[in-house]
Amino acid sequence: MKRYLALLTLLAAALPFAACGGRHNPNEKYFLVTANSKLTYWQTAASGLTRAGTQMGVQTEMVGPENYDPPAEAQAFRDALAKKPSGILVSPADPALLGPEIDKAIAQGIPVITMDSDAPSSKRLSFIGTNNYDAGQIGGRVAAKALGGKGSVLVFTMPSQHNLAERLHAYKEAFADYPGIHIAEIVDMKGDPSIAFDKVMNMTRDGKSKVDGWICLEAAACKEVADVLNRNKVTGNIVVAMDTDQDTLDWIRKGSIVATIAQKPFTMAFYGVKMLDDLHHYPPASLDRVWARDTFSPVPVFVDTGTTLIDKNNLDAFVQAQASNK
What we know:
The protein is an alpha/beta fold. It has eleven helices and twelve strands. The protein has two domains: 148 residues, 3-Layer(aba) Sandwich (Rossmann fold); 131 residues, Rossmann fold.
């Protein structure tokens, strides 16, 4: 009898763990949709997506065009939705295109979380990514210090992206404290780094630059900026970048880029898909609600994954930390 009671006790203790471990079905599938899947940034995000899927024992897949193409991203979202996934992470390159598609998914009971770039007017459940205003403030202060509080700058961006618009707004507010700094031009690079290359080449052909600094609000432009400045032997310009492509880090080491602002795409995708998984298994009564105004909301409006400023002072430590995590 004692052995029988002991066995019952062990079984009772094990049941909660068995139930927890068995909640996932290998047929569950979560998608990450992006507009530029071949960028190093998105490959890093894909590794976070895969890591989470492996831990949970579910399927994951990153989809979207290999080169910047917002309409193709919208089509990739529609294709993913047609497969009735368990949830979708999406980085809207153009919220006007993706917003209606996100709302259709929500109407079908499929949870959608935006990451990296938001579509705040859509019915997405949450946004996970960088506090882009803070990132722009950090970059603005770094640029202002490097400029000595005066000079003209050119900004490379993509105006349709909500995250880049927030960064630009923050840069402008940071520069407002320095009357001697003004933005000479804002260039839409349309996701094509060759536009940045050509622009800088045209403005520095004679070895002199028509501006004092270059600001890049996304990952691809500033390595092109640094390359052209180096080719044309332009000195005295400051360059503030975004993200941690290897070329960007190399140009920091060489002194051509003052600093870059590192984001956490691995964390965004890793944690984002776990949030989707929780919503799939424990859905609220309705996905189609304005949860931002609900004080008992089961989802946060925004999850800030943080940023790190990288310059010559901490570059080696950053590279070593990255290598140890691979």
